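User
New here, help please:
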Amino acid sequence: MVDIILIVICAYIFYQLYTVLGQRPSVSSPQDSAFKSAPNTQKDSKKAHPQETIFVTQHPKAEAILKQIDVSLTSEVFLHACAQSFKLITKAYCEGDRETLDQLVEPKLYKSFGQALRQREKVGHREVLDELIILKVSYEKAWVLNAVAHISIRIESIQKRDLLNNQGHYVDLEEIDTSIPVVDVWTFCRFLETEDPTWRLKQVTALDA
């Protein structure tokens, strides 16, 4: 079912609602709950970049792995969920939201993120994500190793991220109001021999834009 892949982002949605309402809500449709969580980003982005996100869904190996896990899970649904995860994890990293990262990221990568966050906090910096627009999402490769499914996703985006010091001033004045193209390959993994249906981020590789 669609629920399988969307669980990777539902934990974050539940956490946000819990923070606001003081209790975990009952959600009848994880798909509806998850995809309604980020409508403003899409609307705002269209002002500067009117093109829609391109999803390239054809990838025989990835499709075969997804069908092996769940015959109703389509490659298009998986890509859309990965795009949502990309937004949530990027936002959580910029905000230093460790609880969200812990839910969505594999332990080894989470440790690397934590080291980077501690270094940033040590010098009194914080990162602001002013713009995140996903231009294109496509499959890079897919494989199964030791009963763990891996699917790598290529994500092309436009981002504007600024570093501020503890006085709230920009650290790099030359980068103010500068949006840059970013190309990443994110690898998600899922353990096939456990009851946990969650896909988590395992590896991030930055490519030349």
About this structure: Residues 19 and 171 are 31 Å apart (CA to CA).
